[in-house]
Specification:
This protein has 473 residues and is of the alpha+beta class. It is built from 9 helices and 20 strands. It has a 20-stranded antiparallel beta sheet that branches. A hairpin with a 2-residue loop joins strand 12 and strand 13. Helix 1 crosses helix 2 and helix 5 packs across helix 6. The N and C termini lie far apart (62 Å). The relative contact order is 0.06.
Length: 473
């Protein structure tokens, strides 16, 4: 089976060399081991090189112009070195260091990688016989103490390109000491790419390029192997019958800092100048604080609502907080987005099981409050643009809109304060509160859909105070 990237091709060779034992005292033994390796590779695979030599001090081997070929996929390195391979397939293999430079990739993904280094690499048991060297163990089960990669430039046949100046990762697959950094990372998926098409179909919006750009990122405490393991269940593009939950993916303490973040999708571009997040523990409570500075949302003319929305929405600061009591399992999430003299948005969510949840204790919403303060006449400006599209003035539009809102309030009494806010929003705050009778997790929300649609009394109770309410300040 041909994997799209098969960047593990050289690693497959590494496994083979480790399984056979590249701990040689002579070049003759190295050649015998390589002959055995070739005999044990899959039928459609070859490992070639211009020169091989033992590395006596490193108890390993080096290769000049090494090439791993499998079908139409070629992974090559000008220099490949493997140091101190130990262990067996049945018990796991380890390598003190693997290094490759001037790497080229040909196939569904093609391009170049300047340099790759992995230190203290551990591979889990995955075969009891040396001849079974056909596929790699899952990436989530691989461990290494330090990895770094330089100068990536790759293009996928699916329509995406990926470039990166430098990245490093420490203690991948280990529970403690996870840390990483990235410099100049860029992903671009063209308008006709598979990713852009999938996003368009799932949102019923026009196709548009998708891109992600990060100038710099430094983090510690993120257990990437847990994320990789969670994502592996979706391999092949199919949804498994039972989706495993992602849990315990962060260490305490943890920290993330980014500079120059940009994300474009569906003719929208979200950018931020800098952001940081810190996570720590105080007694029984895990605290998280984050701040994002100088963010903006740019709206392309091709976006469906571009005629009524401003071309750029600037957010001066976004502050995020999260607290979770490890004993009571009660948590609180807070968010405040502010642009002085324009607007403030405050959100507050009380939730259970925010951390370390399982199938029986899912994250559940207890209550939420959302407050919007219009300090700069933003709502009236929005309504003015809507009125202009209808060849109306704001004064003509508001009575019609208020009549429609009055009808909505009859159906949903909890929105009773909305018409008054729309009538005169500038300088005022509107708060929307939702307090369900019981905590709502994803499963219970799905179960509630049918009763709410079939029982008018229940639906009215859930759309009225104290469950749903609005207040004007």
């Amino acid at each position: 089976m041909k994997r799209p990237l098969l960047a593990a091709g050289l690693c497959l060779v590494v496994i083979g060399l480790g399984a056979i034992g590249v701990r040689h005292e002579s070049k003759a033994e190295l050649q015998r081991a390589l002959a055995s390796l070739r005999a044990n590779l899959p039928p459609d695979s070859r490992f070639e090189y211009d020169q091989a030599y033992p590395r006596f001090l490193a108890r390993g081997a080096g290769f000049e112009n090494a090439r791993f070929i499998r079908g139409d996929i070629v992974l090559a390195a000008r220099h490949l070195t493997i140091n101190n391979p130990t262990g067996y397939l049945a018990t796991g293999l380890s390598f003190s260091q693997i290094h490759a430079d001037h790497v080229t990739v040909q196939g569904p993904v093609s391009g170049t990688i300047g340099e790759v280094t992995l230190k203290k690499l551990l591979l889990p048991p995955f075969s009891r016989e040396k001849r079974d060297i056909v596929t790699l163990p899952p990436a989530s089960q691989i461990h290494f103490r330090h990895g770094q990669i330089h100068d990536i430039a790759l293009t996928a046949s699916s329509g995406c390109t990926f470039t990166m100046g430098y990245a490093s990762l420490d203690n991948y697959g280990h529970d403690d000491g996870n840390a990483g950094s990235l410099h100049e990372g860029h992903v671009l998926c063209a308008k006709d790419s598979m990713v852009a098409g999938l996003l368009s179909r799932s949102t019923h919006q026009a196709t548009a390029p998708v891109s992600l750009d990060i100038t710099d990122m430094h983090e510690s405490g993120i257990r990437y192997a847990r994320y990789v393991g969670w994502a592996e269940q979706f391999r092949g593009g199919t949804l498994p019958a039972h989706v495993a939950l992602l849990s315990d993916a962060l260490e305490t303490p943890a920290r993330t800092e980014t500079k120059g973040l940009s994300f474009s999708f569906l003719n929208l571009q979200l950018t931020s100048e800098t952001s940081d997040m810190r996570r720590w523990k105080e007694g029984e409570t895990i605290e998280t604080r984050g701040e994002t500075r100088n963010s903006s949302l740019k709206i392309s003319p091709a976006f469906p609502l571009s005629l009524v929305l401003p071309p750029v929405i600037h957010i001066n600061t976004v502050n995020q907080t999260m607290s979770f009591n490890t004993t009571t399992r009660a948590g609180m999430i807070g968010l405040t987005a502010t642009t002085p003299k324009s607007f403030t948005v405050n959100a507050r969510l009380a939730m259970n099981n925010l951390e370390n949840y399982d199938a029986e204790h899912l994250p559940a919403l207890v209550s939420t409050d959302l407050t919007y303060t219009d300090e700069g006449g933003n709502l009236d400006a929005l309504l003015t643009r809507i009125a202009a599209q209808r060849n109306m003035t704001l004064e003509d539009l508001k009575p019609t809109l208020l009549m429609s809102l009055a009808f909505v309030v009859q159906k949903v009494p909890g929105l009773s304060a909305v018409p008054e806010f729309v009538q005169s929003p500038t300088g005022k705050s509107l708060t929307l509160s939702f307090r369900p009778p019981v905590p709502l997790d994803n499963s219970s929300m799905i179960r509630m859909i049918k009763p709410l649609s079939q029982d008018p009394a229940m639906a009215r109770a859930w759309s009225s105070p104290p469950v749903l309410s609005t207040t004007l300040h």
